[in-house]
């Protein structure tokens, strides 16, 4: 057999090489066709049934080899000049025809099995359908059926036609099954969003038809099937790096399967419908929803339908819009120079952390010459720090955080000298370190909080060992950029998750829990990802493609890596400040940015520039900045 990687310029050699691949898949295809013909004959001639039964044991292996030879022929045609071009429309029709023969052969096997009655089977030992997940009392006289091969249906519209055909043929049309048994089979073959459609229906014999109708109502939608094939075709992303045989095989599989499936739907005026679907991808969600309502009774919209609708909406909005020139609102503040966007200092002097910019110099410390009396750095009252009610009622970690901007001594809590200048013979009674006993942290906190730790430092979090990504210390006064975004699930429905923006990450991530809620199946990931300090990221669950749906623009699609967790909840504790109401007057992506909540995804450098489109806006000089 010729080497597919040998791109010989001689067209005659290329044609002869391709002929071997073609003969390979046609040989398997013809054998499948003969088995189907034999099944048709066996329905009426009992003498042919034993031969047909024997050939059916080989049909699955034949189908696997047929598809392998077909893909090999496509790959060879891609790397050589083949005339006429392969696959042509006739070739695609042949491929679909063989698949139809394959399914028809199983249908004939079912028809023959139903016509055979095994009345000699003793009660209680009747043969059952080849699936051991149900165990009910046997009914005498049931037919011996072949083992059922039905893949679990998880809500993928592209997989619905095959699932519906097999389930109808092997379960619904099987006369020896009761509706209660059919319902149990249905539940065993559904998962994810598909299973959710019947969870509210009681599992009784009388409710099977209602349950099947509920599943069919949602997924027996040819337009949704067509759109899923288009999305699968357009959203496919090849592997990063040098192309390999596996990556090209994956590409051909996705493209060929999507195109063949689209053609099998026999959509009228397909080119016009395709243009309409492509144009809808760039339409704002509000207008698109109104358009879908206007064509609710139409199976496949055309581009002219969309064009006329948008023109009508334009006229309405143009006529109803307010006249006159609208005044531009004055900006609150000018954009400041380079500054970390997530540092801030609350103005209130409560027992909350006194957070500030890491590079900001400390305040001028008081001296005995400048102050005739002691002033508490927390409540500004006339008493020393150890007598402050706020200081006493705080935890050691809160005390350390509150004193981060304080220039006094952490050992004796005297305000007019630094710790390294302290001459006191006393030290911490718990650990003998040079800090006050009221500032001592337990062993569980000592790794993440220290009186000498600089603001904004990072340390690995023991709560999330799986992901070597972004971590913040418990004493850090930094707000990381969080967002709330809608992610489309396998059925095109939007779910809102909270995530993190990190331009330092080369790729984007989502958690296992987020992937399960989206109902999407992961693909293997064989690459290597390094986290902090170059340590390899372990426990990668796989990769998949997701689409973020912004409120007023087209969806942003990217490939994400699925990991058990990304980071602990951010921020690590709720933050309060009197300045927050100024920020909440804006339309924030994450209005609850100061409230600790789980992180479900991380947007890396692959989408960062698409998400942030404007310059940073400073609301408060010492507060976090807004990013558009």
Automatic annotation (TrEMBL):
- Give me the stretches of Polar residues compositional bias: 342-352
Q: Where is the stretch described as Disordered?
A: 326-352, 439-469
Pfam families to which the protein is assigned, alphabetical:
DUF1759
- Annotated CDD domains: retropepsin_like (cd00303)
> Record's InterPro entries?
DUF1759 (IPR005312)
Residue ranges, compositional bias (Low complexity): 444-465
Q: What is the protein name for this chain? A: Protein transport protein SEC24-2
- Give the source species: Lygus hesperus (Western plant bug)
The encoding gene: SEC242
């Amino acid at each position: 057999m010729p080497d597919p990687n040998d791109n010989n310029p001689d067209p005659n050699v290329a044609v002869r090489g391709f002929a071997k691949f073609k003969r390979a898949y046609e040989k398997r295809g013809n054998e499948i066709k003969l088995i189907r013909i034999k099944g048709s004959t066996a329905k009426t001639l009992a003498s042919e049934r034993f031969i047909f039964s024997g050939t059916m044991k080989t049909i699955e292996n034949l189908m696997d080899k047929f598809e392998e030879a077909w893909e090999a022929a496509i790959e060879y045609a891609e790397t050589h000049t083949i005339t006429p071009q392969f696959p042509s429309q006739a070739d695609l029709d042949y491929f679909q025809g063989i698949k139809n023969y394959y399914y028809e052969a199983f249908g004939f096997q079912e028809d023959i099995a139903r016509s055979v009655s095994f009345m000699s089977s003793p009660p209680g030992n009747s043969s059952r359908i080849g699936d051991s997940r149900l165990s009910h009392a046997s009914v005498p006289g049931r037919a011996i059926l072949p083992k059922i091969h039905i893949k679990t249906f998880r809500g993928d519209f592209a997989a619905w036609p095959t699932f519906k055909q097999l389930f109808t043929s092997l379960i619904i049309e099987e006369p020896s099954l009761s509706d209660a048994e059919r319902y149990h089979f249905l539940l065993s073959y559904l998962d994810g969003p598909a299973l959710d459609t019947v969870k509210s229906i009681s599992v009784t014999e009388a409710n099977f038809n209602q349950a099947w109708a509920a599943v069919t109502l949602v997924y027996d939608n040819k337009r949704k099937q067509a759109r899923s094939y288009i999305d699968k075709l357009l959203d496919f992303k090849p592997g990063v790096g040098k192309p390999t045989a596996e990556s090209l095989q994956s590409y051909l599989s996705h493209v060929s399967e999507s195109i063949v499936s689209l053609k099998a739907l026999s959509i009228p005026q397909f080119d016009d419908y395709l243009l309409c679907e492509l144009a809808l991808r760039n339409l704002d969600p509000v207008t698109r929803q109104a358009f879908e309502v206007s064509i609710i009774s139409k199976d496949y919209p055309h581009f002219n339908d969309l064009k006329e609708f948008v023109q009508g909406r334009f006229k309405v909005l143009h006529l109803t819009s307010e006249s006159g020139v609208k005044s531009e609102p004055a900006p609150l503040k000018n954009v400041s120079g380079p500054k970390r966007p997530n540092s801030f200092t609350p103005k209130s002097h409560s027992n909350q952390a006194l957070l500030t910019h890491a590079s900001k110099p400390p305040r001028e410390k008081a001296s005995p010459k400048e102050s005739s009396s002691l002033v508490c750095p927390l409540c500004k009252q006339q008493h020393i720090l150890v007598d402050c009610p706020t200081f006493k009622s705080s935890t050691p970690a809160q005390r350390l955080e509150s004193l981060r901007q304080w220039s006094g001594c952490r050992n004796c809590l005297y305000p007019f000298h630094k710790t390294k200048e302290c001459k006191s013979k006393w030290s911490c009674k718990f650990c003998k370190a040079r800090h006050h006993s009221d500032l001592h942290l337990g062993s569980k906190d000592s790794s993440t909080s220290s009186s000498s730790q600089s603001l904004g430092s990072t340390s690995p979090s023991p709560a999330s060992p799986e992901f070597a990504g972004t971590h913040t210390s418990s004493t850090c006064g930094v707000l990381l950029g969080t967002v709330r975004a809608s992610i489309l699930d396998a059925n095109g429905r939007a779910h809102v998750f909270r995530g993190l923006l990190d331009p330092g990450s080369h790729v984007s991530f989502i958690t296992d829990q987020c992937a399960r809620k989206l109902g999407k199946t992961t693909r293997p990931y064989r690459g290597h990802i390094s986290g902090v300090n170059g340590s390899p990221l372990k426990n990668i669950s796989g990769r998949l493609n997701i689409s973020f749906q912004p409120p007023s623009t087209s969806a942003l699609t990217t490939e994400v890596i699925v990991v058990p967790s990304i980071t602990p909840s951010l921020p690590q504790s709720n933050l309060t400040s009197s300045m927050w109401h100024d920020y909440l007057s804006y339309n924030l992506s994450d209005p609850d940015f100061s409230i600790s909540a789980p992180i479900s995804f991380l947007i890396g450098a692959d989408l960062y520039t698409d998400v942030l489109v404007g310059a940073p806006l400073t609301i408060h000089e010492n507060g976090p900045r807004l990013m558009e």
